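Long-time lurker, finally posting.

We've been working with Peroxidase (Oryza sativa subsp. japonica) and I want a structural starting point before designing mutants. I don't trust myself to interpret raw outputs, so I'm hoping someone here can both generate the structure tokens and explain anything notable. Sequence follows.
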Amino acid sequence: MSSAAMKLAVVAALISAAAVGARACLDVGFYDTTCPTAETLIQQVVAAAFRNDSGVAPAMIRMHFHDCFVRGCDGSVLIDTVPGSTTRAEKDAAPNNPSLRFFDVIDRAKSAVEAACPGVVSCADVVAFMARDGVVLSGGLGYQVPAGRRDGRTSLEDDALNFLPPPTSTAADLVANFTAKNLTAEDMVVLSGAHTIGVSHCDSFTNRIYNFPNTTDGIDPSLSKAYAFLLKGICPPNSNQTFPTTTTFMDILTPTKFDNRYYVGLTNNLGLFQSDAALLTDAALKATVNSFVRSEATFRLKFARAMIKMGQIGVLSGTQGEIRLNCRVVNPVNVTATAADDHHLTSSSSSSSDEVAAS
Ligand code: HEM
Ligand SMILES: *[C@@H]1O[C@H](CO)[C@@H](O)[C@H](O)[C@H]1NC(C)=O
Ligand SMILES: *[C@@H]1O[C@H](CO)[C@@H](O)[C@H](O)[C@H]1NC(C)=O
Ligand SMILES: *[C@@H]1O[C@H](CO)[C@@H](O)[C@H](O)[C@H]1NC(C)=O
Ligand SMILES: *[C@@H]1O[C@H](CO)[C@@H](O)[C@H](O)[C@H]1NC(C)=O
Ligand SMILES: *[C@@H]1O[C@H](CO)[C@@H](O)[C@H](O)[C@H]1NC(C)=O
Ligand SMILES: *[C@@H]1O[C@H](CO)[C@@H](O)[C@H](O)[C@H]1NC(C)=O
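Top reply, 14 upvotes:
Generated this for you. Predicted structure of Peroxidase:
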């Protein structure tokens, strides 16, 4: 990946800290002295997984989004529901389960950095690095990831339901939901461009192809009829029950390439979700869409900038939160020598925080 290194150098020059704002206390090169191999080790795990299944790239990009929009980028999306608990964790909420995938690849990346530098690299940062690696492996522009996030200790299904916008969202809803996270309407349009790679399950869009309200053919008028018939072939009625694991690519023009074809498809009524088509229903949003149709370079650069910005939402830093040892489980209240041995880890003591209210 020497070309990736080159891209990183280029973007480092283009994206200055000032350009993306100095709000959160995160730093590029945060692990340079404490774990200098962290980013390389993580990249190797993502690259190996990507060679086997390129779907790991979109999966990590979406993972970062769903982490950041719920309690901030604090790794809370990775925490498993505690067995026997009556409250489920974020990852078991409908917007995440079963669609979030490759948690096992995150575990492998975390294990690699724990083996090299125990108790140093947060799960939230691992996800941020993996998302960037997914962008680069799919052909997007590389960027340097400000790091130093700490991990939260709370993960609640209801938070995911309350903060992750559904695919039926209108333009006004989407703008409001992103503004609530300090992201602009333009950030929302450019980040939706992540739908240039990856897949969707049928139940995210079957309402657009069967029984859409106020139509005679049941098809959302903002969706291409030809595409609707193709989708009906993939997703029969009630497919959420009969074929719950069926998926389809979101960008049918170039499904695995991180390019601007998502926007080209969008302007040809090939956006898969109502939330995609919604980007054409508002003049300002549509102007942004059209600018990305015209210039792939503009999209690539603005996407990288917006990912850096999204990666700063509600972060914990300094002594807040903890460095979770196993991304699926919050640390025991005291990380004792015994507990560390159980994990085959020797922890440099984690902070003794109570539950954090990140927001
Ligand atoms: C604007 C509001 C958004 C809505 C309503 C939305 C909705 C969705 C839905 C419904 C899916 C398919 C899930 C499934 O059924 O399997 C999906 C997939 C995906 N989304 Fe979004 N999304 C939004 C924004 C974003 C953002 C900001 C990003 C990242 C920057 C993103 C990245 C992805 C990726 C990469 C996938 C494919 C995941 C995979 O292949 O595993 N989305 N999105
Ligand atoms: C390769 O990808 C397939 C499909 O995602 C998965 O089932 C399998 O575990 C992967 N193998 C490795 C070695 O990652
Ligand atoms: C998105 O914004 C709309 C409009 O303010 C609001 O009704 C909705 O609850 C928000 N949804 C999420 C998931 O943030
Ligand atoms: C699944 O299909 C049933 C029957 O058509 C429907 O009532 C339900 O709302 C669907 N669920 C989702 C998540 O689309
Ligand atoms: C369908 O028509 C009704 C009555 O005119 C209206 O209230 C509703 O918003 C329409 N639904 C859609 C999805 O256009
Ligand atoms: C948004 O910015 C305001 C002002 O800088 C800050 O107080 C707030 O915590 C930020 N919200 C998020 C979700 O990052
Ligand atoms: C945590 O530390 C305190 C004080 O060192 C000790 O009394 C307590 O037993 C420890 N709890 C656990 C679960 O190890």
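Before you design anything, note these points.
Residues 35-197+249-315 form a domain with the Peroxidase; domain 1 fold (CATH 1.10.520.10).
Residues 16-22, 337-359 have pLDDT under 50 and may be disordered.
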